[in-house]
């Protein structure tokens, strides 16, 4: 099995006043090459949605973070589903 270690950092943006949010996710996931993996993210309903945008980044060892998903599930050009 090929290990794909992902460090995902979540950034939350609020359109109104700034608030502290708490989001929980696993530190890494693994899977075979070409296998689809799912990464959970949980938080209170006031943390996710309701004016907050959740951005997903992938950071491989020794690399800078890469934006994968932003706002309501949009992906930058070149990032596959």
From TrEMBL:
Gene3D superfamilies in the record: Immunoglobulins
Keyword terms of this UniProt record: Signal
Where does the record locate the signal sequence feature?
1-19
The protein's matches in SUPFAM superfamilies, at most eight in alphabetical order, are given as:
Immunoglobulin
Q: Does the keyword Metal-binding apply?
A: no
Tell me which InterPro entries the record gives. Answer: Ig-like_dom_sf, Ig-like_fold, Ig_V-set, IgV_Light_Chain
Question: Which ranges carry the Immunoglobulin V-set domain?
Answer: 24-73
- The name this protein carries in UniProt is Immunoglobulin V-set domain-containing protein
Organism of origin is Gulo gulo
